């Protein structure tokens, strides 16, 4: 009988140890998964070093659109139809529409991109993807 009880006790100890180890493994996996998800969220949250709300506030507070129009006019772009600033959690874009007569291909796009991002840097806003559209 004693042998039988020792066998049962040994079996119970193995079950308890197995259960505890299983719980610890599950807990460890949960913590690791949570940390990974936070890391992924932080990386895909925004295209800027700042949060979306901070970028939105800064573009408004600094009159970024007005400053950008003035800076582009100084660069010789006098037919700006519109400037659109779009901000999502993943990226921020600026779209500028100018006339066909002022558009000189990649040279124009590079010059406008440089102007936009230089002004953004000066205003501590981050950087933008820049799109140039033309109007006939």
Describe the structure.
This protein is α+β, with helices and mostly antiparallel strands and 136 residues long. It is built from four helices and three strands; from the N terminus they run αααββαβ. It has a three-stranded mixed beta sheet with strand order 1-2-3, with helices on one face. β2 (92-99), α4 and β3 (129-135) form a beta-alpha-beta unit. The termini are far apart.
Average pLDDT rating = 81
By DSSP (H or I, 4+ residues per run), the number of helices equals 4
| Helix/strand order, N-terminal first | HHHEEHE
Class of secondary structure makeup: alpha+beta
Assembly level:
single chain
Q: Give the strand order, joined by hyphens, for the main sheet.
A: 1-2-3
Q: Rg, please?
A: 29 Å
**What share of the residues lie within helices?**
55-70%
Number of strands: 3
Query: What overall geometry do the principal axes of the alpha carbons give?
Result: rod-shaped
Distance between the termini: 100 Å
Instruction: Tell me what portion of residues adopts beta-strand conformation.
Output: 15-25%
In the predicted model, the low-confidence regions spanning at least 5 consecutive residues are: 39-47
Instruction: Characterize the biggest β-sheet.
Output: 3 strands, mixed
């Amino acid at each position: 009988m004693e042998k039988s009880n020792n066998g049962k006790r040994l079996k119970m100890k193995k079950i308890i140890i197995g259960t505890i180890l299983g719980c610890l493994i599950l807990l460890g996996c949960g913590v690791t998964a949570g940390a990974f998800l936070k890391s992924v969220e932080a990386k895909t949250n925004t295209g800027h070093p700042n949060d979306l709300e901070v970028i939105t506030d800064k573009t408004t507070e600094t009159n970024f659109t007005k400053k950008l129009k003035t800076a582009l006019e100084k660069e010789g772009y006098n037919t700006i139809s519109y400037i659109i600033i779009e901000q999502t959690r993943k990226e921020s874009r600026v779209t500028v529409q100018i006339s066909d007569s002022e558009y000189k291909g990649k040279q124009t796009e590079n010059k406008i991109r440089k102007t936009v991002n230089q002004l953004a840097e000066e205003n501590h806003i981050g950087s933008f993807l820049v799109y140039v559209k033309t109007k006939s």
